[in-house]
Write a structure and sequence with these properties.
This protein is α+β, with helices and mostly antiparallel strands and 539 residues long. The protein contains 17 helices and 17 strands.
Length: 539
């Protein structure tokens, strides 16, 4: 079982937690039909005596449309034509609420969208009247979305392209599958949409979530796609060797921490987002997404905070085609969601059989991301630790000066260190100098950088890599840097900003109420602390 850092930080507020796949998008296609030569061979197997003309290719599309109309008419299934701005998900939910059968297709949506298609053209200089040139291109075609309820997977949808090569996309939800699987195994659960919010045996729930295998995904895809495929009969599929192969297109994995109280969850998430937005530098996240610690970083990374529907705050980080989001799910679950749109970015092939390897990579992303956040969220310092920094340190057998926090330069160096953890081979003093120089707005020489780094090495805040001139931030160094950043940005700046720079004296004549007296003592203590850290009141 994977240990998640944020679970330890928020353990006292949690009811239970679990990890499962969320959205799973699977694409299917016949491999032979993806190239013009393979498509021509398939056509000859399907109709050996029929020239591959444009009208014959169009007849396959017309057969598709007729098959859909026949199926929907016989089963009395409504067909809706999509329009601009239409929310297919909400439309399907409205029709699903009116279902009378426990399973089966309840809605078909017809949409005009782009898809790969084939054209047949007569060559200008060909002497054979039956010879055609097959060209593959992207064109506008009718795509049909079949919305249905599966006994094991719950609500799913399937998109068919009405033109050859008849590619298909299957949309599944792992959380809905997990809820149905838990009920079948006798667990007592309570769900809210696609999230489990109560469970009598969280350990068994986690075991079921880890039991999702490729064969179960392949089974649901084969069952519904071949059953609904409206253009070829079973005999025609057998004669032409038509069969779908399944590939992972988009996969989401969610780590769900179910809180005991909705108000506690709201306060915790807002504080969590504020701390990470301030202290978590975007560059430090590159080591989270990388599948290999070596090589250049050729993709941009973005960290953003946005407000979604219902006033919810969403904290997200994106690197290439991979995204991590954290948000409040239905006021009960703190969800960390990892979404990958191209599995090869994580070093995993798209074949459905590679689902276990992809699960491991997504778990690694989640744990790395939360480990990085835990340094910011759960940073704490005990009495005497700040004073101990001022005492001399030691590098090998050499004594080094202590770290005095009233020194503005060393404080700028400490707060700059988290911006350098994205260097997989360690950072150099030349990488540190521009950041510190920009913060101090004065020249920061190489000798000063080497002197400061030696002091940090003496306190075990950074370490020098063997046989190199590169450095790496230690876990203790990350804790110190996060603590000082939070102390400076989250506590001192907001409190000291509206207060006058002059210390207010304690009143001598008229005694103050206990509440006001306590506040005055706190303010004086904060001024003393700001003097030690060389901080000035905010403007």
């Amino acid at each position: 079982m994977t240990d998640f850092a944020l679970e330890s930080a928020y353990r006292q507020c949690l009811r239970f937690s679990y990890t499962s796949f969320d959205r799973i998008v699977i694409r299917g296609h016949d491999r032979a039909l993806q190239a013009p030569a393979g498509f021509a061979d398939w056509c000859r197997r399907l109709c050996p005596d029929q020239p591959i003309t444009a009208s014959w290719i169009g007849s396959l599309a017309r057969r598709f449309h007729k098959g859909v109309r026949r199926f929907t008419t016989e089963n009395r299934i409504p067909v809706v034509t999509a329009h601009r701005g239409m929310d297919k998900f909400q439309t399907a939910a409205t029709y699903r609420a009116k279902m009378t059968n426990p399973s089966g297709v309840y809605l078909v949506i017809r949409a005009r969208e782009t898809a790969p298609i084939y054209d047949s053209r007569v060559p200008r200089q060909s002497t054979n009247p039956d010879y055609r040139t097959i060209i593959k291109r992207i064109g506008l075609v009718d795509q049909y979305y079949f919305y249905l309820v599966d006994p094991y997977w719950g609500p799913i949808s399937i998109r068919f392209s009405s033109h050859p090569p008849f590619n298909v996309t299957v949309y599944l939800n792992g959380n809905r599958w997990l809820a149905a699987e838990a009920v079948r195994h006798g667990l007592v659960i309570e769900t809210k949409d696609n999230s489990v919010v109560r469970c009598n045996d969280p350990g068994a729930l986690e075991t079921l979530a880890n039991g999702l295998e490729p064969r179960q995904l392949r089974a649901v895809c084969d069952h519904w796609v071949y059953r609904l495929f409206p253009v070829l009969t079973r005999e025609e599929r057998s004669r032409s060797f038509f069969s779908y192969r399944w590939f992972l297109h988009q996969v989401e994995m969610s780590h769900n921490m179910v809180f005991k109280d909705a108000r506690t969850l709201t306060k915790t998430l807002e504080r969590h987002v504020d701390l990470n937005r301030t202290c978590l530098h975007p560059h430090s996240l590159k080591t989270v997404f990388r599948s290999s610690p070596h090589g250049r970083y050729d993709r941009n990374i973005a960290v953003s905070v946005r407000h979604a529907f219902g006033g919810l705050t969403v904290f997200s980080a994106q690197y290439g085609d991979t995204r991590i989001k954290q948000y409040n799910n239905h006021q009960q679950t703190f969800r960390t969601e990892v979404c990958v749109n191209d599995t090869t970015d994580l070093g995993v092939n798209k074949s459905l059989d590679n689902l276990p390897a992809l699960r491991e990579r997504l778990l690694q992303l989640t744990t790395r991301f939360q480990d990085l956040q835990a340094c910011v969220v759960s940073t704490e310092y005990h009495r005497g630790e700040l004073t101990a920094l001022a005492k001399p340190g030691q590098v090998n057998r050499t004594t080094t000066p202590g770290i005095k926090l009233e020194n503005e330069r060393i404080l700028a160096v400490l707060t700059a260190l988290p911006q350098l953890v994205h260097y997989p081979g360690g950072f150099r003093s030349a990488d540190l100098r521009p950041i510190v120089q920009a913060a101090l707005r004065v020249d920061y020489s190489p000798s000063q950088a080497n002197y400061d780094l030696r002091k940090l090495r003496g306190k075990r805040l950074v370490e020098r890599l063997p046989e190199s001139r590169r450095y790496r931030l230690t876990s203790e160094g990350g804790r110190v840097a996060a603590f000082l950043s939070k102390l400076r940005e989250q506590i001192l700046a907001p409190v000291l900003g509206p207060i006058r720079a002059r210390r207010p004296p304690l009143p001598a004549r008229r005694p103050l109420p206990p509440k006001d007296l306590t506040q005055l003592v706190i303010i004086r203590a904060l001024f003393d602390l700001s003097d030690q850290l060389a901080l000035k009141p905010a403007a």
